[in-house]
Design goal:
alpha/beta
């Protein structure tokens, strides 16, 4: 099928060829993707353009890391989770970090006060959560504007994203800008990773299971793999996916992160607008202990206390994803224990203390678990 590209496409393509900077090339490539018709005849062209865009963004990020001696934006993870505080200039990130941790970032009225990530440990009851203030984003951060793309790379490496939004300004506009910049850098918010596995092999050709669920079917998948130099692999597709999603999996260019909104400056004036539906919103003006509790509950984690028969529960909990089971507890302790575990006793969420439960019983925050093989 012919591509039938419109005249505007070739004008923008010329603009790309004449571009002198990475930012100009990225903008032109984005425009080419927008203009190109979306049908079977342009599938390969669109994949090439999107691959080019991903490469240009990686080059831009690499340049930002090398700029001026390249201070590191990497923050070593500590505690049970790392939460990135992401916001526009003067949204209240530094004030919030001071309120919840012992960190003492500079607080000022002028923008870009924070120029490197600032970590702090939030103590919530018997666990610690690492909060990291990310240098401010602006519209176009993914193109190198403001402090560049490095703040986005720091946010990308966190476990959870907290959008810090100034309630006295346009809330919806702020959220849209932050989400757009994160999306452009390959961070997908509040979405689950696609149920697709691609296992590279040394021989045997390309074997595909669930090919009917993928855009382009078997031939589309095989062509994509060959374009990436893969000639032997097992591909298992368990849900409907596009070829672009498969390409993101191959390139490792996308991460999936939980996200919520921390609404600051709610005491200054009535909130200006509302965030999009589907995003949990926490009023950051609440007392510290109440705010800490809400933040922890938004992480999707639970604390589990283990015990041996005829002994008391452990003082330090295991911190596991919400929905974990006794089998997950055994796995977190040791693989041998996982293999031999048959059942468990649970205190807390069960109908009566010490109730025997199966290995797949859904545990709740604060449960005490005694494993039995």
């Amino acid at each position: 099928m012919p591509a039938n590209l419109p005249p505007e496409y070739f004008k923008v393509e010329q603009k790309y060829l004449q571009a002198r900077t990475l930012e100009e090339k990225i903008l032109a490539t984005q425009e080419l993707i927008r203009i190109a018709p979306k049908h079977k005849g342009t599938e390969k062209l669109l994949r090439v353009l999107k691959r080019r865009l991903a490469k240009l963004r990686r080059e831009l990020e690499g340049r930002e890391k090398r700029r001026g001696g390249g201070p590191s934006f990497a923050v070593k993870k500590e505690g049970c989770a790392q939460v990135a505080l992401v916001g526009l200039p003067n949204s209240g990130k530094s004030t919030l970090l001071r309120k919840l941790t012992n960190a003492r970032p500079e607080v000022a009225e002028y923008p870009f006060t924070t120029r490197l990530p600032v970590p702090g440990m939030m103590n919530y009851e018997d666990v610690q959560v690492q909060l990291v203030e990310i240098p401010s984003l602006v519209e176009g951060s993914s193109l190198g504007r403001g402090l560049g793309a490095q703040p986005l790379s720091a946010a990308r490496n966190a476990d959870v994203i907290a959008l810090v939004v100034d309630a006295s300004s346009d809330i919806l506009s702020q959220v849209k800008t932050l989400v757009r910049e994160l999306e452009e850098s390959g961070v997908r918010l509040n979405r689950s990773p696609p149920r697709v596995t691609i296992e590279r092999r040394g021989e045997g050709g390309i074997v595909i299971r669930g090919k009917e669920l993928a855009e382009g079917g078997e031939e589309g998948i095989k062509e994509l793999l060959r374009e990436h130099g893969i000639h032997n692999a097992l591909v298992v597709v368990e849900e409907r996916v596009s070829l672009r999603t498969l390409e993101e999996i191959l390139e490792g260019s996308v991460v999936y992160r939980p996200c919520f909104v921390l609404l600051t400056k709610t005491d200054l004036s009535p909130a200006v607008g509302e965030p999009p539906e589907g995003l949990k919103v926490i009023d950051a003006g609440k007392p510290p202990e109440e705010l800490k509790r809400e933040i922890f509950e938004s992480l999707g984690l639970i604390r589990i206390y283990t015990k041996r028969p005829n002994e008391g529960p452990s003082e330090n909990p295991l911190v596991l994803p919400r929905g974990s089971t006794p089998l997950d507890v055994a796995r977190a302790i040791h693989k041998e224990l996982e293999r031999g575990m048959r059942s468990a006793r649970v205190w807390g969420s069960t109908r009566f203390p010490g109730q025997w439960v199966p290995r797949d019983y859904p545990l709740q925050d604060g449960d005490v678990v005694e494993l039995h093989s």
